[in-house]
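Intended use. Records like the one below are meant for learning the mapping from a protein sequence to its folded structure. Do not use them to infer anything beyond what is encoded.
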Amino acid sequence: MAIVINLDVMLSKRKMSLTELSERVGLTIVNLSILKTGKAKGVRFNTLEAICKVLDCKPGDILDIE
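Structure written out for the chain above:
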């Protein structure tokens, strides 16, 4: 099983760029890019919460398992 990050899907649905998300969440584009590409080894709950607030979604909309 592998965890899949669907951040790019949610960004597309919300018509938001990674740059805009970065500014609104307060994370660097590099860190968000690492998360988006699935190369992150982990994510803090407060980071996930901030992303979900900005994208108006739930963690399950961003994280999935295959």
